[in-house]
């Protein structure tokens, strides 16, 4: 009672420890990769082991087409035409134009970066910081995992439906084999889907040469069938069916464009094949843009045929193109369509699994994931551990769960990745001009403008979705244009050393605005998913990533040249 106890130092110590943890987290989260010089890039590309460089420009174009065109070309064209009428052709042209400018951004980054795996993750790591790159990866990967499982179940369903053409098998194949036997809303047993996934995973583990050959064969088959369908349908077209061209108004055409945009998604897969491309700086831009242009031409051809064969209001919902040919007595074409759908889903699934493994490989090399993901087979030159991992995850999801019910939370990763890639083009042009020494105030101002463009795009999307007054939509567009002009006149830009996206920063800003406009069109559960996944992955990064990541790790990565041909 008579003496006073000495003051404790625990609160101060606790406060100091907390401050130290926050400081370490911020310093780790904000670090970035160094953009190598052209000389370093050349030396790195000519080194000696790792993934095998076997993909030529034709392989890359087929890779992009294989990823983009699945069964949707035979379905989504008709379902959207049911609302937009013959104007669905304009919907596909608008969506295709938007994808082309996104592709220009991807092409620039693919040509200027060292030929290594990573795609959008790698670009974000260099232009922004480690945490942003990790979050982009997590959003993309969730899309890929659920998407692969969903495609596998659709493929299994199409195969069983095709087999049921034969009388001996009709109604004799149990649902749990291919169609899916549901037990409640979540559990759904499907045996064939995981079998297909593991077979494709095995092909991918054998080597890029083998998997590229399978993709090329299936993609050529698919393109051939689509061309046959277009020519066969062209002789059945009645031009009077194209009038009225936009029966539900211009708004339905724009709404249709927001839907069919996702039919083109997949060209970005080419960017993830950089380390296996023979001449990446030349061939990647050609592969990205070339595959997209082929897809646009095929989609437009199918749209013109389907709306010309049958009045738009009579198109079916589930198989509109096949129904249109059956109504004309051309049942053999509907069988071709089934084969084309199987080929399309097979290539989309194959390329999706391929891209996932390469992204895991990139993060394993950088230390953001365990090092087992960075291991490459010494003879096959494929990331077998990463490939088996993504195959197993997709197999579990496809074999046990009704993943189709999760389709409304997809596309978040795609739109996030496309927007970040467009922003990377702008940011890296600042860095180039001053050899990476951008003043903090100029960089801060530029980032604020980019964020303003994104926010305006999202706001315009919400206003359009809920049919607000057009004045408010125009106001959002005007503010976005103002932010873009500020970027144009307040920053200094240099040309890209490789393929150069035209109109920087305006073209990338158009990409960001439209991608975020589409983000505003997504189901509200997709927005919730974006927030929840981001929070969880920040926690994962805080616990594991910040302590193991090494942005300079890939400086020691070397690659394997394909044998001379």
Which CATH C-level class is it? Answer: Mainly Alpha
Order of SSEs = HHHHHHHEEHHHHHHHHHHHH
Question: What is the overall silhouette?
Answer: globular
Distance between the termini: 92 Å
Main beta sheet, described?
A: 2 strands, antiparallel
Give the helix level as a range of percent.
55-70%
CATH third-tier fold name: Amino acid/polyamine transporter I
Please name the CATH architecture.
Answer: Up-down Bundle
Counted up, domains total: 1
Poorly predicted runs of 5 or more residues: 555-565
Query: Can you count the beta strands?
Result: 2
Spell out the CATH superfamily: Amino acid/polyamine transporter I
InterPro entries: AA/rel_permease1, CAT_C
GO molecular function: amino acid transmembrane transporter activity
GO cellular component, one term: membrane
Family: Belongs to the amino acid-polyamine-organocation (APC) superfamily. Cationic amino acid transporter (CAT) (TC 2.A.3.3) family.
């Amino acid at each position: 009672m008579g003496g006073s106890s000495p003051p404790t130092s625990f609160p101060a110590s606790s406060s100091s420890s907390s401050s130290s943890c926050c400081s370490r987290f911020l310093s780790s989260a904000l670090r970035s990769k160094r953009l190598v010089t052209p000389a370093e890039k050349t030396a790195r590309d000519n080194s000696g082991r790792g993934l095998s460089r076997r993909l030529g420009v034709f392989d890359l174009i087929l890779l992009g087409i294989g990823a983009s065109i699945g069964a949707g070309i035979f379905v989504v064209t008709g379902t959207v035409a049911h609302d937009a009428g013959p104007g669905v052709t304009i919907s596909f042209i608008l969506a295709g134009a938007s994808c082309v400018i996104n592709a220009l951004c991807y092409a620039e980054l693919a040509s200027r970066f060292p030929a290594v795996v990573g795609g959008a993750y790698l670009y974000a790591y260099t232009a922004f910081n480690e945490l942003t790159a990790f979050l982009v990866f997590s959003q993309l990967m969730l899309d890929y995992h659920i998407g692969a499982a969903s495609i596998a179940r659709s493929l299994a369903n199409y195969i069983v439906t095709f087999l049921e053409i034969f009388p001996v098998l009709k109604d004799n194949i149990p649902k749990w084999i291919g169609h899916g036997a549901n037990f409640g809303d979540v559990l759904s047993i499907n045996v064939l889907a995981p079998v297909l996934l593991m077979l494709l995973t095995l092909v991918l583990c054998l080597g890029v040469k083998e998997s590229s050959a399978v993709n090329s064969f299936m993609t050529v088959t698919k393109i051939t069938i689509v061309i046959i369908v277009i020519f066969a349908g062209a002789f059945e077209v009645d031009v009077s069916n194209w009038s009225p061209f936009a029966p539900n108004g211009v708004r339905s055409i724009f709404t249709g464009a927001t839907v069919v945009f996702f039919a083109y998604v997949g060209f970005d897969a080419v960017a993830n094949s950089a380390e296996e491309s023979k001449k990446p700086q030349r061939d990647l831009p050609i592969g990205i843009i070339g595959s997209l242009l082929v897809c646009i031409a095929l989609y437009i051809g199918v749209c013109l045929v389907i709306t010309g064969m049958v009045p738009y209001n009579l198109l079916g919902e589930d198989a509109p193109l096949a129904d249109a040919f059956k109504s004309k007595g051309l049942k053999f074409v509907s069988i071709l369509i089934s084969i084309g759908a199987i080929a399309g889903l097979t290539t989309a699934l194959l390329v999706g699994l391929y891209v996932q493994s390469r992204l895991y490989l990139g993060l394993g090399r950088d230390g953001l994931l365990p090092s087992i993901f960075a291991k490459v087979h010494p003879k096959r030159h494929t990331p077998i551990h990463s490939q088996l991992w993504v195959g197993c995850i997709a197999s579990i999801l496809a074999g046990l769960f009704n993943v189709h019910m999760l389709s409304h939370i997809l596309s978040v990763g795609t739109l996030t990745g496309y927007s970040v890639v467009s922003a990377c083009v702008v940011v890296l042009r600042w860095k180039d001009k001053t050899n990476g020494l951008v003043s903090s105030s100029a960089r801060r101002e530029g980032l604020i403008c980019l964020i303003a463009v994104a926010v305006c795009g999202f706001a315009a999307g919400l206003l359009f979705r809920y049919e607000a007054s057009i004045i408010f939509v125009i106001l959002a567009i005007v503010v976005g244009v103002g932010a873009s002009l500020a970027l144009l006149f307040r920053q200094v830009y240099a040309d890209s050393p490789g393929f150069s996206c035209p109109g920087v920063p305006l073209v990338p800003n158009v990409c960001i605005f439209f991608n975020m406009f589409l983000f505003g069109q997504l189901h509200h559960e997709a927005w919730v998913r974006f927030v929840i996944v981001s929070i969880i992955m920040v926690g994962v990064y805080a616990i594991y990533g910040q302590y193991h990541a090494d942005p300079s790790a890939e400086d020691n990565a070397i690659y394997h040249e394909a044998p001379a041909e």
